Amino acid sequence: MKKLFIDIGGTHLRSEIVSEEHTAEDMVSSQEVGLLSYIDKQATLHPDISFIGISYAGQVNNGIIAASPNINIDEYDIASVVKSRYGIPLVIDNDLNCAVRAESAYWQSDNIAALFVGTGIGAAVIDHGSLVKGSRNMAYEIGHIPYQETPFFCGCGRNNCIELFASGSGMGKWLKHFGSDHDLDLNRLKNSDIEEERLIASRFEDAFLHASGVLVTLANPEILVLGGGVIEQNPYLGTLLEEKLKRYALNASLEGLRIEMSVLKNAPLEGAKLLETQNG
Ligand SMILES: [Zn+2]
After folding, report:
1. How far apart, in whole angstroms, are the C-alpha atoms of residue 143 and residue 165?
2. Among the CATH numbers 1.20.1250.20, 3.30.420.40, 3.30.1640.10, 3.30.1330.10, which is that of 2-95+268-278?
3. Which of 22, 103, 179, 185 has its CA at 20 to 30 Å from residue 165's CA atom?
4. What tens digit of pLDDT does each residue of 130-181 get?
5. β-bridge mates for residue 63, sequence order
6. Torsion sign over Cα 125, 127, 132, 135
7. How far apart are CA 215 and CA 279, in angstroms?
C-alpha cells in the first residue's frame, strides 16, 4: 500500500508517494494545478493509495478548506469528495500546524512555536504537547494581524495585514507598487541603490520582528523555530531576532527562549506524514 503526502503552498505543490520500498517525490506549480485535480491524477495513477495527508497554506477545519489567501481552490469539501470518489481517507491541516508538529518531534519540545516566512507568513504553537487549534482550527493566523495600512490588498481581503510587509508576496506587492520589475530577493533589496527598495527591506524586517514579538509574547514558547523559503534564503533574520526581539516582546517571555532555524528539508510535508496518527 502507498500513502500520498502533499504540501501545497502559494508557489509549489510538493508531494511524496511513500511505499514500503521507496518514496517518489513530485513538484508542480500550485498556481497551475488545483489540489483536487492533482489528487485525481495521483489516485488514478496509484489505485493502491491507502491514505492522503495534506499540509495546506490556508485555513482548514475538519477536512474542509475555509479560505486560502494565496491558493486557488478547486474544491472546498476536499476530504469528503476524495473519500466518496476513491474511498481514501484524507486528513488536511494548515501548513504551519503541520510544520510545528514536525518541529516538535525534531526538537523534542512540548512547548514550541513555529514562524515560517515564504509566500505568506504563518505561525503555529504546541503548548504542553497539544496543538493550539482555536474553535475552528484557526489559531495563530499571525500573518493577518492588523499592522499598517497599505495601498493594496491582502489575499484575505484587508489592507493592513502583517503579511503585506513580512512575506514574499508582500514584498512582491510593494515592488509592483513602486513600479519595479526587479526580483524580490530580500538581501538584494536591503543593499539596493534605490531608496524605495531599501524601504521594502526595512519594513519587512520591522514587520517580521513585530510578528515574532507578538507570537513569543502570546504563546511563551520554549523554542521559536524559524523556517520557510524567505528565512532559508536570508538566515541573517535569525541573528536579527536574537539581537532585536527584546524590543518587540515582553521581557519575561524571552527568558529561556531558544531561537532555532528549521533544519528539516520540508517541515510542513514532514508534518503531513504525522496527520494519520496525530489528528487529535
Ligand atoms: Zn490578510
Report:
1. 9
2. 3.30.420.40
3. 103
4. 999 999 999 999 999 999 999 999 989 999 999 999 999 999 999 999 998 7
5. none
6. negative
7. 23
Q: List where CATH 3.30.420.40 sits in the chain.
A: 2-95+268-278, 97-261
For residue 155, how far is its CA from the centre of ligand 1 (angstroms)?
A: 6
Contact 137, 93 (CB under 8 A): yes
| Ligand 1 centre distance from Cα of residue 202 (Å) | 20
CATH assignment of 97-261, among 3.30.420.40, 3.30.70.360, 3.40.1190.10, 3.30.450.20: 3.30.420.40
- Do the strands 258-261 and 223-227 form a parallel or antiparallel pair, or are they unpaired? parallel
Instruction: Give the Å distance between the CA of 208 and the centre of ligand 1.
Output: 15
**CA nearest 125: which of 136, 138, 111?**
111
CB atoms within 10 A of CB 124: 30
| Residue 18 alpha carbon to ligand 1 centre in Å | 35
The tens digit of pLDDT for each residue in 178-203 reads: 998 777 889 999 999 999 999 999 99
